[in-house]
Amino acid sequence: MALKIPHLAAVLAAASAMAALPALAADTYPTKPIRFIVPYPPGGTTDLVARGIAGKLAEKYGQQVVIDNRGGASTIIGTDMMAKAAPDGYTFGLITQTTMSINPNVVPKLPYNSERDLAPITQVVYFPYVIAAHPSVPFNNMKEMIAQAKTKPGSITYGTPGTASTNHLGGAQLEQLIGAKLLHVPFKGAGPALTAALGGQVQMVITGAATVIPQAKAGKIKIIAFAAEKRHPNWPDIPSTGEAGLKGYEAGTWFGTVARAGTAKPIINNLNREIIAALNTAELKASLTGAGFDIRTQSPEEFGKFMAADRALIGSVIKVANITLD
Asked: Per CATH, which fold does 128-244 belong to?
């Protein structure tokens, strides 16, 4: 029996119809609730950012945007869910510098490939750090701190929320730039690290500006420098590390949003546009900047390039400092 060969026009029509499906889906998106995965427990800074974005998206879309907190394993549990979700735009997630830049450089076998399996949407916020010290330390600015570190290597202790935290990476990069050894003291969280600095158990802490500045105003700790090239507009009286000659140094952490790789580009662009619009509403912008965040947004392409560059920089710092997780 001779096989029937489909007419070329029918084949082309079918292919065209299949290709149009993602575009049609994007035109009507969203038609049902959206899941927003946050790879941290409820109640923290990531939750504050995610819930603010989710509320504004729900208003815009007329659909529920449901926060799904999946904390654990240094964001790996929640991120694995993002990486294995259907690529239809109805699941996206919040990621951090820990997720995309640190984990790939310190965790030998991740259950996903963050570059291959996740599609960038946009960076959303940056949380800047300051370098602060107990009032009893003999230095009062970066130049004096650097001089002591070089004269007495290892004599200055600094606390962080833990090994391979963004705070620790900020300290490791600082050591490499000044060419002198500091003594890292890891704690189980940012709160205990700050408490140790307030009590004088460690001399310095590298932590969120909004967290420590109220303590500085009360005279319980002194700010040595804002960890950035330039002074921050919210705290213009605090000198920057750039003023002490540390060009290019910036310590802090960033949050962003991603979807499953393979999600239709029009849907990625839609989420990018609406998340940026949400962040720039007066209400949400005031809430986040009041909590110490800088709003930072990008196109999906720019965010992808940013993450690749950040991952490479963090990898270099980790390699030179020989940072490993037990």
From this structure: D-Maltodextrin-Binding Protein; domain 2 (3.40.190)
